[in-house]
Amino acid sequence: MGFDLDRAGFGMRLFAGVLDTLVIVIPIGVFVYLYTGTPSLNWTQGVTWNVLYIIYSIILPVIWGGYNAGKRLVNIRINKANGKELNIADMFFREFIGKFLIGYLTVGLSTLVSALMIVIRKDKKAIHDFVAGTFVSNEV
């Protein structure tokens, strides 16, 4: 696999991330509003939301062949650099270690560095891609 697939750039990856969040937040927000009668996004703050989103980010791409909701909508997907199928360990390293933990420990600096890496590098790999041995490809 490697470089023979077209790599997804920063704009597509960012757009997929925004769509992914909206696909999750809007339905849950409507449910919370109907339950509480108060429009609020306070439920997206704190540990519970982060844990649930990380679990979603780890499990769905394994089940759905490299896609989450946002990536499916813009036709990009996560691939293993060695051509094998994604597994839970790959996604754990990508999402929890590569994005969340390193992002937390660097107070978000690694997120900015990753964005620059996607823009500048020919292979368009971010820190979390290196941690997990993945890349994101365009599927169209």
UniProtKB/TrEMBL annotation:
The chain crosses the membrane at residues 12-35, 47-67, 101-120. The keyword Cell membrane applies. It comes from the Bacteria. The keyword Transmembrane helix applies. It is a multi-pass membrane protein. Its main location: membrane. One of its GO terms (cellular component) is plasma membrane. It is found in: Cell membrane. It comes from Halobacillus halophilus (strain ATCC 35676 / DSM 2266 / JCM 20832 / KCTC 3685 / LMG 17431 / NBRC 102448 / NCIMB 2269) (Sporosarcina halophila). Keywords: Cell membrane, Membrane, Transmembrane, Transmembrane helix. Residues 8-133 form the RDD domain. PANTHER family: LMO1584 PROTEIN, PROLINE-RICH ANTIGEN HOMOLOG-RELATED. This is RDD domain protein. InterPro entries: Pra-immunoreactive, RDD.
